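To whoever is covering the structure queue this week,

Two jobs came back overnight. Logging them here so there's a record in the thread.

Job A:
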Amino acid sequence: MVIRPTPAHALTPEERARVLSVANEPRFADRPPARIVPALADEGIYIASESTFVRLLRAQGQNAHRGRAKEPKQQRPPTTHIASRPGELWCWDMTYLPTEIIGRWFFLYLILDIYSRKIVGWEVHGTDDAEHAARVVQRAALAEGIAANQTKPVLHGDNGATLKATTVLAMLNWLGIKPSYSRPRVSNDNAFAESAFRTAKYRPEFPRRGFKDLDQARDWASQFVHWYNVEHLHSGIRYVSPNQRHAGQDHEILAARHHLYLAAQAANPRRWTRNTRNWTPIGAVTLNPEKPELIKTESSNQDKQAIAA
């Protein structure tokens, strides 16, 4: 058997121990390396690359899916709208929340800004009613101040009876919001909202045996929305929080990460066989990539505006 010498730039035993120690801290114990590394970068800390975290955790048998969720499955892409800034494209849906009583459910209504992934509106009710849906949209519009915007958002939803009810359509018309609906027989045309619901139901705080009452469900939803908007480093927007993306802070944060990685590369160049991690801000977001040239144009225009600013 060939015995290969240890590379001169390999991690020291102390560095390997630190990687494992940080990965098993209570705040990171249920997070994959893809979320640990950006979180450390925002604290001005660089220990090792994401691949190094993966390799060392795998060697310790700790690289199984870290958390309650199963491995994500590939999804078909959704319907044609492009968002190049907050407030242009929203999606919404309703999901069932289990209770401790079998056969009884609470209903979570949620509105998401697709560009920033920020939850801009939500409510929990004991019944599924078009009146509730209409009020959720109204409160989201007031909270986001869309009345002062020249261009109102498009609101995409599924073909459920509640979201297409006359009461809801009248409210959308009054607010100047244009409705959009999923294609017939396409179950995942509203993937952004479905993804948010999946994240919610696999949070450790989600009660496995259901909610005791409506107050408990609303308290949980309030805490989840705060976590999702403020603390959650979203993989779809380069691991910044939805609030940071919504406020336009992602460019500065990602630039700081990029400079940190360049400094780490300069300190140990032999440990970097390729370029540093890509921290380029995400551009335009689409519900349907069937026209890639339009998306490319929107992203290019957005980049030019950012440079001019």
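Job B:
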Amino acid sequence: MTARHDDSSEQLILDSIAKWLARDVEPYAMKLEHDDEYPQAMVAQMKELGLFGATIAPEWGGLGLSATTYAKIVTMISESWMSLTGIFNSHLMLAKAIEKFGTLEQKKKYLPRLTSGELRGGTALTEPDAGTDLQGIRTKAVRQGEHYVVNGTKTWITNGHHGQIFALLVKTDSTATPPRKGMSMLIAEKAQGFTVSRKLEKLGYHGIDSAELIFEDYRVPAENLIGGEEGKGFYHAVGGLELGRINVAARGVGIANRALKEAIKYSQQRKTFGKFIHEHQAIQLKLAEMATKCEAARLLVESAARAYDAGQRCDMEAGMAKYFASETAVENSLEAMRIHGGYGYSKEFIVERLYRDAPLMTIGEGTNEMQRIIIARQLIERNLI
């Protein structure tokens, strides 16, 4: 496939995802989520579907999907079980960093194995004292001959337990001003000195492993410096976050959509005061608001994805999409719970899971407070008098 799919080929992909979700995800997601069990069988199926190479070019074995098609896939999967999207999103950010910024040797060595899912991994950016503020990281990499020696800690790393390889953001020059000029990104495979200290327990986002990674005199071949040049790591990370934010925004749309669908369905089953609750004006107002926000969020995601596909700077568009869609996910999940009444608080109903999963979207890939700052700064920059 090429990066430019026509409508019919896109629909074939979406149809195959829909069939997989109905057959292999929906019947099992609830139990796996409640047990916080890693979905091994679903991961194997995602390999077969090509999701681990979804946005990577065909020359490296990927599907070469546009961000627009990718966002639709993420939305669909998030309607069934949002956790699954994290498994390939973080992985694709790693692969995209290598494809976009890596040397030819790095691409040849890693991309075919990443796109097939033979190697799986993610991005290791966040630290205990540095999340949205990436310039505050402390993990250091010191060049010693033909290796970098790494010491530090990363936390909240998706695929930390089950992944084998990570795009590792480090400080190679602690004296650089501003700090971002002293940051580099390494391709880090698990080896001696690289340990997973613990799995982090979470409110939601169950089934997927979020881990703390410890690096103690961990040695990385110098040839694994992405792009072969120090001081570019911050820009590699930020470049990946644009697609990551589109992914998180699409997840928000999926959660919001499912909350609306569950609310509509329940409102036609539950009766109060002698009539179905969808006949009460109070419920109608809620459903109308939820539906309108779903559509607005979808359009914002589509706009950001189109800008990304066109090669345009889209930090403002991605920020708008991520901010609005994630807030919509939170609001719709709460409204769906209220429409369900007491049943919405029960683990037997999907809305309880949606309510726990939604808040992560307001935090992941940069907090919504930071998204608003990015939006405001871009508004000024693009409209200078």
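Note for Job B: The mean pLDDT is 94.

Please reply-all if you pick these up so we don't duplicate work.
Q.
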